[in-house]
Design brief:
Elements lengths: L2 H11 L1 H18 L1 H4 L32 H37 L1 H15 L3 H12 L3 H27 L3 H8 L4 H9 L4 H24 L11 H8 L8 H28 L1 H9 L4
Length: about 290
């Protein structure tokens, strides 16, 4: 049974995994079609209709301190969070995989040099380093993605390096080397495919981490520009109205909680489905 077959079989047998997948797909669809399903312009201000509660006429989830429609801003904020999340994770994974493959396969002084760089990078707190980078580069989605990539590639580098060290002396790698395959071919065609299961699991879990980090940066005023609605910025704006307009901070907080929880559950499900050690444990638990 292939990895994809095991994955689909496991997801189909777990209602929790299917529910998490459905939530993630729902958020992705909302982000993709945000301009068409948004009831209003997220930046349209109406000071006469400010701080209207949910279920008000024309505003299903109410309005904020400037009279902007909260539902529209939540919908467009979904697009921002997912773009940042998926882009940062993809770019971090590409860089980290390349470094990990070279470090683990070549070994020697190359491995030592690359791993000392990784260790030095890990010495800095993740969020503080991201804040420092964004503070230098300035606000904007592009700069947020750059900061998250700079701080996030080391995780994949260490993971892939460890997997490569365990695979480079396996029989199929030695056979490919004996047949004259180049190091690049061995790394890309023989080692990397066997590393994809743990990479996929880690990348899925990292999407939630990146979304929270982006919201944290936006909350601190270092995220998206003022013209781009962000869940973190909405949380920050809602602090001033906690006693009068609870929905301004509660609704974006629930959106962050929902997508991060769904992504974490999905990541755990992928680990259980693709990790043979977990599969063996489940098999051993079945009574004979």
């Amino acid at each position: 049974m292939t990895g994809l077959q095991k994955l689909f079989r496991f997801l189909g047998s777990s209602w929790l995994a299917m529910s998490a997948l459905a939530v993630v797909v729902l958020f992705v669809l909302v982000g993709m079609f945000a301009p068409w399903i948004s009831p209003q312009d997220p930046n349209l201000q109406d000071l006469a209709g400010r701080l209207q509660p949910p279920l008000s006429e024309g505003h299903l989830l109410g309005t904020d301190g400037l009279g902007r429609d909260v539902l529209s801003r939540l919908i467009h904020g979904t697009r921002i969070s997912l773009i940042v999340g998926f882009s940062a994770v993809l770019l971090s994974a590409v860089i980290g995989i390349a470094v990990g493959l070279v470090s683990g396969y070549v070994g020697g002084w190359v491995d030592s040099l690359l791993m000392r760089i990784v260790d030095a990078w890990l010495a800095f707190p993740f969020l503080l380093l991201a804040i420092a980078i964004v503070a230098v580069l300035g606000r904007g989605l592009d700069n947020i993605v750059i900061a998250l990539v700079i701080t996030g590639w080391v995780l994949y580098a260490r993971l892939v390096r460890g997997e490569t060290l365990s695979l480079r002396e396996r029989e199929f790698v030695l056979s490919a080397r004996g047949l004259g395959a180049s190091p690049m071919t061995i790394m890309l065609k023989h080692i990397l495919p066997n590393c994809m299961a743990p990479i996929l699991v880690v990348a899925t879990l990292e999407v939630g981490v990146v979304i929270v980090t982006e919201a944290s940066l936006s909350f601190l005023g270092l995220g998206a520009s003022a013209s781009e609605p962000s869940w973190g910025a909405m949380l920050s704006d809602g602090r001033a109205y906690l006693t009068r307009a609870w929905w301004l901070a509660t609704l974006p907080g629930l959106a962050i909680f929902g997508i991060v929880l769904a992504v974490n559950i999905l990541g755990d499900s992928l680990r259980d489905a693709l990790d043979p050690r977990h599969e063996k444990l489940r098999t051993d638990d079945v009574p004979v």
